[in-house]
Amino acid sequence: NVAMAVRVNPSPPEIDGILTDEAWQSAPEFGNFLQREPDEGKKASEKTTFRIIYDDEAIYFGVECHDREPDKIVSRLTRRDGRTEADWVSINLDPYYDRQTGYWFTAQSSGAVNDGAISNDGWSDSSWDGVWEVKTKIHDRGWTAEYRIPYHVLRFNSKDEYIWGLNVERSITR
Q1: How distant, in Å, are the alpha carbons of 91, 118, 149 from that of 99?
Q2: Nearest to 92, CA basis, from 168, 3, 172
Q3: pTM of this structure
Q4: For a pLDDT cut of 70, what percent of the chain falls above it?
Q5: Most confident of 1-10, 43-52, 82-91
Q6: Which range (104-113, 116-125, 150-159) has the least confidence?
Q7: Other Cβ atoms within 10 Å of 103 Cβ, number
Q8: Most buried among 64, 113, 142, 145, using CB within 10 Å?
């Protein structure tokens, strides 16, 4: 699948976990997630959608994690790069589009974060800590995550047009 980013016009969103800013309205919505567990390849049990926008400084992701039972969202705090049983969403980027290197940016429904670098086609280094922002918000339809990832964190070369690898993952902990 292909997801396209849209240039922010006129200004970027406020990073508050609420996806109602005007900047998000012009971006197409992507979804159609499939399960990995428990039934690999089947339609996701809960709807997840995302949008991508950008400006001269950063790329932004807005993720909507729908949940028919929002009172069952598992939301636990942990330290940065800590792992705990919780609902989460992860943006995985390959800005060189070499299918061997990249970065992950994970937000738990509580707002706790986990990030790292990927190299050698799968080795992960969670000691890498990029400077980026994400805010989450639990609401009556599920929860949202709103990301701002500055380009300087991704360390890629300037071009006229960019093609990146992207994987968006969601985990529902029940």
Answers
A1: 15, 10, 20
A2: 168
A3: 0.93
A4: 99
A5: 43-52
A6: 116-125
A7: 21
A8: 145
Single-letter code of the amino acid located at 84: T
Give residue 1's pLDDT. 82
Size (the chain), residues: 174
User: What is the C-alpha to C-alpha distance for residues 50 and 32, in angstroms, rounded to an integer?
Assistant: 10
The token pair that represents 8 in the structure block: 């922010």
**Residues 4, 53 contacting (CB under 8 angstroms):** no
Q: Helix/strand/coil (H, E, C) string of the chain?
A: CCCCCEECCCCCCCCCCCCCCHHHHCCCCECCCECCCCCCCCECCCCEEEEEEECCCEEEEEEEEECCCHHHCCCCCCCCCCCCCCCEEEEEEECCCCCCCEEEEEEECCCCEEEEEEECCCEEECCCCCCCEEEEEEECCEEEEEEEEEHHHHCCCCCCCCCCEEEEEEECCC
| Bridge partners, residue 119, by sequence | 123
